[in-house]
Design brief:
Elements: H1 4-14, H2 26-32, H3 38-55, H4 61-74
Helix pairs in contact: 1-2, 1-3, 3-4
């Protein structure tokens, strides 16, 4: 399981592929979704891209958090706190 800094780097790298996105906080995502592997993060980024495309917008922190919460549910995990 990757540590916080490694997860933050994965979030950053997954979005450096050229997908249009707004400024986001990879460390916040890494801390909030602490049980994600690289594969889970990749799935969340892809979901966020689809969510943003449906709205005709660039990927935002909101899309990433929504997608990560969805991925957490798919993993069978819940979150202690509500959405930010």
């Amino acid at each position: 399981m990757p540590e916080v800094e490694e997860r933050a780097k994965l979030w950053q790298e997954m979005l450096s592929t050229g997908a249009p996105h707004e400024k986001f906080d990879p460390k916040r995502l890494a801390e909030e979704f602490s049980h994600m592997t690289g594969a889970h993060i990749r799935n969340a980024v892809l979901t966020a891209a689809f969510l943003a495309a449906e709205e005709g917008r660039t990927i935002s922190q909101h899309h990433l958090q929504r997608a990560a919460r969805s991925e957490y549910r798919a993993m069978g995990r819940g979150l202690a706190k509500g959405p930010s």
